[in-house]
Amino acid sequence: MQMTGNIILITGGTSDIGRGLAEAFHRFDNQVLIAGRRQSRLDEITEANPGMLAFQLDVRDPVAIEAFAARIRDKVPELNVLVNNAGISRPESLAGRARSLYRARHRRDQHHERAANDGGFAPGTEGEAECGDHHDDLRPRLRAP
Ligand SMILES: NC(=O)c1ccc[n+]([C@@H]2O[C@H](COP(=O)([O-])OP(=O)(O)OC[C@H]3O[C@@H](n4cnc5c(N)ncnc54)[C@H](OP(=O)(O)O)[C@@H]3O)[C@@H](O)[C@H]2O)c1
User: Fold this and answer.
1) According to the UniProt record, where is the region Disordered (predicted)?
2) Looking at the domain assignment, is residue 89 inside a domain?
3) Which listed residue, of 39, 54, 65, 95, carries a Cα 20 to 30 Å from 126's Cα?
4) Distance CA 96, CA 76 (A)
């Protein structure tokens, strides 16, 4: 990518990674547009970086996205880079995921065991869907009449 002379839209440009990219690209003589929900942050960043443009946008709102896209197409049709950065990361417990996967597998195996004892076909189970695997070859088959 050419590092200068672009028109770059960065969603989530009001903090951390987005703001860092916006200010770096701004320093490299790109026209930078940032978007985010907090107007106070947008104002503060454009004041600190003269020439940068800011737009309030909540990316969870599909109607607002449509209106925003139309506005951007109209205002800067030459836009050539999108950094689709807006979002959040939540802490996640890998141990919790492992436990729920174990339980789902256990439910699936119990279901198949019951079906095998009944001599019938075991349709897919909820546990199986959660496991993300389908052991068709291990399933008891429907008996011929
Ligand atoms: N930091 C990490 O270690 C890490 C790791 C993996 C992935 N990521 C991803 O990288 C991106 C940036 O991370 P970060 O650490 O810089 O996050 P951050 O500091 O929480 O910043 C998130 C940015 O997204 C904006 N935003 C959040 N929800 C929004 C919404 N509904 N509509 C519009 N803007 C929204 C926020 O601005 P407003 O609050 O003003 O709207 C803010 O500018 C995120 O997508 C994150 O999931 C980060």
Assistant:
1) 102-145
2) no
3) 95
4) 46
Q: How far is the CA of 119 from the centre of ligand 1 (A)?
A: 53
- Residue 28's CATH number: 3.40.50.720
Q: Does 66 lie in the same domain as 11?
A: yes
CA-nearest residue, atom 3 of ligand 1: 89
pLDDT per position as a tens digit, 70-111: 999 999 999 999 999 999 888 877 777 788 888 888 888 888
Q: Tell me if 40 CB under 6 Å of ligand 1.
A: no
Global pTM value: 0.74
Clarify whether residues 65 and 11 are in a common domain.
yes
Answer whether 86 contacts ligand 1 (Cβ < 6 A): yes
- Specify whether 15 is located in the same domain as 39: yes
Q: Give the mean pLDDT of 14-18.
A: 97
Please list, in sequence order, all residues whose beta carbon lies within 8 angstroms of the beta carbon of residue 33, skipping any fewer than 6 positions away.
7, 8, 9, 10, 13, 52, 53, 54, 55, 72, 76, 79
